[in-house]
Write a structure and sequence with these properties.
Layout (H helix, E strand, L loop, with lengths): L1 H24 L2 H7 L4 H4 L2 H27 L2 H25 L3 H18 L1
Helix pairs in contact: 1-4, 1-6, 4-5, 5-6
Pfam families: DUF1304
Keywords: Membrane, Transmembrane, Transmembrane helix
Protein name: Epimerase
C-alpha cells in the first residue's frame, strides 16, 4: 500500500503544479470556470493578484512533493509525504468550506487517500 501511496504523492505534486498554473497563468475565463468564481470578479486586478499569490504556494507544494523523491529515502520519505499529504487535506477542507465544494473532491480527497495509503 505504501508504494501506491508514494505514486499518489507524486501525482499530488503534479496536481498542485497544474493548480498553480491555473491560478497564475490561465485566462480569467478558465480560472472562473475552474474555481467556480464569477468572471467579473476574477477579472479584477485584486482577484488576479490573490490568485497568483495562491498559485505560488501551490507551485511550492507541488515542487516539494516532487523533490521528496530525490531528497529523502526510505522511512524519511514516507514521513515527509505523510506530512505534506496532511497539509493538503487540511487546506483542501478549508478551501472546500470557504471557496467551492469542488475542492473537497479535487484536493482534500486525493490528499486523504494518499495519507491513508502511506500509513498502511
Amino acid at each position: 500500500m505504501v508504494t501506491i501511496g508514494m505514486i499518489l504523492a507524486g501525482l499530488l505534486g503534479i496536481l498542485h503544479i497544474v493548480i498553480a498554473y491555473l491560478e497564475m497563468f490561465a485566462k480569467p475565463e478558465v480560472q472562473a470556470n475552474a474555481f467556480d468564481m464569477d468572471l467579473d470578479f476574477v477579472k479584477q486586478s485584486g482577484a488576479q493578484l490573490a490568485l497568483k499569490n495562491q498559485g505560488i504556494y501551490n507551485a511550492a507544494l507541488g515542487v516539494l512533493f516532487l523533490l521528496g523523491f530525490v531528497m529523502f529515502t526510505a522511512h524519511a520519505q514516507v514521513v515527509f509525504f505523510e506530512l505534506l499529504s496532511l497539509f493538503v487535506v487540511v487546506v483542501g477542507l478549508y478551501g472546500g468550506a470557504t471557496v467551492t465544494k469542488k475542492i473537497y473532491l479535487i484536493q482534500a480527497l486525493p490528499g486523504a487517500v494518499t495519507l491513508l495509503l502511506l500509513f498502511l
